[in-house]
Amino acid sequence: YTGYPGGQRFATPLVVLTKKPGEVLRMAVKGMLPKNKLQKEFLKNLMLFSGTEHPHAAQNPRAVDLNDRKKSA
After folding, report:
1. Which pLDDT tens digit goes with each residue over 40-50?
2. Distance of CA 29 to CAs 13, 20, 56, Å?
3. Is 5 helix (H, G, I), strand (E, B) or coil?
4. pTM for the whole thing?
């Protein structure tokens, strides 16, 4: 909000996605966190990388296909 009447700022997810691809996901995670002093600390631990390359390749991450998992009863 800019402080002026009618000065409310907003952006659709499509506009934000074209400018900053990871921002939509970061805002979604932020909305799920508790609204207190810890929210800022939790967001510091969030690391988002666009694409498949990232500096954590030494940890041997593996892809998980959620559609291929068996249903647990």
Report:
1. 999 999 988 87
2. 14, 15, 21
3. coil
4. 0.61
